[in-house]
Design brief:
Aminopeptidase; globular
């Protein structure tokens, strides 16, 4: 496969994690905001079924410094999820196009002749050059997502939980299974939802380099699990991974209370801010919930697709 002059490509190794994260951070900073880093990349590499040897590539300059990265991996039956990043100082030299060549080739290998096969590629919503490249390859934007954040110096007190609700950490046998069941029910109506087996979900959750069950919360109503929040911390930032409430218990302030409790825990650890990722078209009004607890849009990204 063709490589731009002065660059070569290879599969990454686990030792490349910091260098790949540095490119991603530089790319984000070039767009005006640093959101993702080593924790995000490490979690991607820990996903079930992801293979560094076949599903990812790094671009190296003449000094063997990593200046670009791309990956493609199975997302669900019939779909491949991909993304890439190029250091701002090495843009407009064909690296992004070469990475996309490799992504498309790997997608063809993974999807074969499956009916309704889809390639889904994530990109910075303000990256017009990347958008033009994807459009030229036959992809189109299908969904818009936001990273939303809050400065932990601006917290509201969590206050008491909603009446009749018990909120605990994850400690007792069966708690992890309860979190999984709650989140599956809570997200069943979301765009792109597909059932995720418990074993796969748990493997990815525990395999996340920043996994910290002390930050997770589980909500019960008379002993029945009805809400949950997963979270982690990286450097001076807290991350809310998933927060969900089953449909029968929405509208009672449970989601907002979970978020405020999580923010208070982050602040107690001395973290600077908290962040989460959300589908801007979420049908349950998640963006309104996040705004109600003080979160604001920090960065936008789009999902492009080719069927």
């Amino acid at each position: 496969m063709i490589s731009p002059a002065g660059y070569e490509f290879r599969a990454p190794t686990p030792d490349d994690l910091a260098a790949v994260a540095a490119v991603l951070i530089a790319d984000d900073l070039g767009a005006g905001q640093s959101i993702l880093g080593a924790g995000f990349v490490g979690a991607e590499w820990a996903r079930t079924g992801f293979d560094l040897a076949t599903d990812a590539w790094v671009a190296l300059d003449g000094a063997a410094v990593i200046v670009g990265y791309g990956q493609a991996s199975p997302e669900e039956p019939g779909a491949v999820r991909s993304w890439g990043t190029v250091h701002p100082e090495h843009r407009s030299r064909g690296i992004g196009s070469a990475l996309l060549d490799r992504i498309e080739e790997r997608a063809r290998e993974l999807l074969g002749d499956l009916p309704a096969a889809r390639l889904r590629h994530s990109m910075n919503a303000d990256d017009h050059a990347a958008a033009a490249l994807l459009q030229a390859r036959g992809l189109r934007p299908v969904r818009h997502f936001w990273y939303m954040g809050i400065d932990l110096a601006e917290l509201q007190e969590p206050g008491p939980p909603p009446p009749g609700i018990e909120i605990t950490g994850i400690a007792a046998p069966g708690d992890l299974e309860a979190v999984h069941a709650v989140l599956q029910e809570a997200f069943a109506g979301d765009w792109g939802y597909h059932p995720e087996p418990y074993d796969q979900w748990a493997e990815e959750a525990v395999g996340n380099p920043n996994h910290d069950p002390a930050l997770w919360l589980l909500v019960r109503d008379n002993g029945r699990p009805v809400g949950a929040l997963t979270a982690s911390a990286e450097d001076d930032r807290g991350w809310v991974g998933e927060v969900g409430v089953v449909p029968s218990h929405r509208g009672r302030g449970i989601g907002a209370h979970l978020l405020r409790l999580s923010f208070a825990t982050f602040a107690g650890r001395g973290l600077r801010d908290a962040m989460l990722n959300v589908d801007s078209g979420n049908p349950t009004g998640a963006t309104v919930l996040y705004e109600s607890v003080g979160m604001r849009i920090a960065w936008r990204w789009d999902l492009w697709e080719r069927s």
